[in-house]
Design a protein that fits this description.
Helices cover about 55% and strands about 10% of the residues. By secondary structure, it is of the alpha+beta class. It has a six-stranded mixed β-sheet with strand order 1-6-5-3-4-2. The N and C termini lie far apart (about 55 Å).
Length: about 210
């Protein structure tokens, strides 16, 4: 039996409504989960030792758990910074959580050692935006482009080994306490995001977290 023109139009309208509803549900669906503001969560958000960017007086804090060998971390890094462009009311705390093997672990240790030279943010950005393998040549090049001293980095990996080890252990403990299973993850104020976001997703969560 053939469909009449009116039936076809009604069917098309139903499809359009259904698609619109699906898009609306996707948009309004929570992107993360609100976590209770326990002393542990407050301690993570107020960590005085984590490398950071942004003003200390910022009204909103983002805590980033990431791995330099994680492709989604690198994509989300660009998206987060695009969403934060031009804002001065957000600070970002960086938690090195190298879960993908020895290359990730070495990169994380070098980044933490670089914080003593005041180049953590520049180095983190360079490593997240790199297009090469995460080996020592890449790490050294990134350190030098960030304005750092590679020889000092190598020395600090030894002299600061205890501090670096404690930072990595603390980050891992926090991640497991939050129920994280991998990178990336973001604690944006009271909102916990497991996985990556695009720029629009970050903007949306920033709005929700600031309420």
């Amino acid at each position: 039996m053939s469909l009449r023109r009116r039936d076809i139009l009604q069917f098309g309208a139903a499809l359009a409504i259904g698609s619109g509803a699906a898009i609306a549900l996707q948009y309004f669906r929570p992107l993360g989960e609100k976590v209770n503001e326990t002393p542990a969560v407050e301690s993570i958000l107020a960590d005085p030792d984590a490398p950071r960017t942004g003003p200390e007086t910022a009204r909103l804090t983002i805590v980033v758990y990431s791995d330099y060998d994680c492709a989604i971390c690198r994509q989300s890094h660009d998206a987060m910074h695009a969403a934060l462009a031009g804002r001065n009311d957000v600070r970002v705390l960086y938690k090195e959580w190298p879960v993908l093997g020895p290359r990730s672990d070495r990169a994380a240790r070098i980044a933490l050692a670089a914080d003593k030279q005041g180049i953590y943010a520049a180095l983190n950005d360079a490593l997240m935006r790199r297009s090469t393998r995460l080996d020592d040549a890449t790490l050294r090049g990134a350190v030098e482009r960030a304005g750092g001293d590679w020889a000092r980095i190598e020395a600090d990996l030894t002299t600061d080994a205890k501090r670096i080890e404690q930072a990595l252990a603390r980050n891992a403990t926090e991640a497991f306490a939050l129920g994280l299973r991998g990178t990336p993850a973001y604690l944006i104020g009271p909102v916990l995001i497991r996985g990556g976001l695009d720029e629009a997703g970050f903007r949306r969560v920033l709005r929700e977290a600031a309420r």
